[in-house]
Amino acid sequence: MKHKLLSFLTPFLTIGLSSCISSEVIDMPESPASSSNEIVLRVSAPDATKTRSDHTGYKLRYVAKIFSSTSANQATGLTFIAKKEIIEGEVKDNEITFSVSPEYNYTILVFADYIPETNTLTDGTYGDYFYDTKGTTEEIKFKGTDQTKSNIDLNFFNNDNLDCFSAARTIYKKAERYDIDDLKLERAVAKIRFVDTSNNDLSNVSTTVSQIAYLQTFQQAADNGVDFKTTKITDIKLTPKSDNADRELFYYYTLAPKSQTNLQDLTFKVTSGDNSKEYKLEAGNVPARKNYITTIKSAFVPSSQGPNQQEGDTGTKEDDGLIHVFVPTPDGDITYEIDKTISNF
Fold first, then answer.
1. Which helix H or strand E contains 6, and what residues bound it?
2. Is the Cβ–Cβ distance between 86 and 92 less than 8 Å?
3. Which pLDDT tens digit goes with each residue over 172-212?
């Protein structure tokens, strides 16, 4: 009688248990919980993050995702298993542990970004801010721009808190604990700087950006920035820093590929006093590469003496009223530099 009763209840018990399993976790082969089933990560971002800029009000968050993989050598055929988050320095050795089944291929993806220090852990996440880490894919998306809107968040410009980092590792786990010590992340962004080379006064200068170019998505497994966007924006007015020995007008970050790509059609106006000049950087002439700084230099700032002053012109004025400049030019007024300076960036 007991046997018949258990046989009768078994399907219902199975249904009840299945309804408790999160849709974000795939079924893996059953195995008892033990340290031999663990994959333990110890993660870190570049040391320069601690000193290179002021991140007051923000904290560095690590988001780790683990996938099963059809290969032990590369991230292919990925199936999402689980996701965990920690805050830099709040866990000893920045340690993250996943419990998985032995004798399997796994890909671990780790992303780090800055979020407000007031964010707390709720339902397993500290919450996204500049970047979208939700979902069960390898993709990270920049969330500061909505393509359906005409404006871009002012935080997009002159903001070192858009710095972010990524790492990927694919392994074959045998029937014992697998430790990944000191998994170092690398920047997933490029920094694009605009620097003035004129001798004109910067005290009454502003820059208004009307069209911006950037990459929307970073594919972690492929270690590559994709999904190019050019967005028209409205009335984003930027002023140079007061302490500005290098005459930087403005800068921004963009997700970027591991090999060089070229941003397109970036448009802005530089105003000094009553005088303004508008620029359009032509298609394919603003190089960007992850973990690199691109500095675009020109005599962008006009004289403040009036609209008839043309000193510092750096291109050809076309029918659209913009000064079209071509970057790079071997011998022209517009120059660019791409610097990989790990200690400072």
1. helix 2-18
2. no
3. 998 889 999 988 999 999 888 888 888 888 888 988 888 88
Q: Give pLDDT, residue 20.
A: 34
**DSSP string for residues in 262-326:** EE--EEEEEEETTEEEEEEEPTT-EEE-TT-EEEEEE--PPPTT-TT--TT--SEE-TTS-EEE-
- Strand pairing of 248-255 and 261-263? unpaired
Helix, strand, or coil here: 333?
coil
- CA geometry: angle 95, 97, 100, nearest 5 deg: 160
What burial letters (b/e) apply to 203-229, b meaning 16+ CB within 10 Å?
eebbbbbbbbbbbbbbbbbebbbeeeb
Closest Cα to residue 55, out of 113, 114, 142? 114
Taking residues 227-255, report their average pLDDT.
81
Asked if 108 and 64 count as a contact pair (C-beta separation under 8 A), the reply is yes
What is the model's pTM?
Answer: 0.77
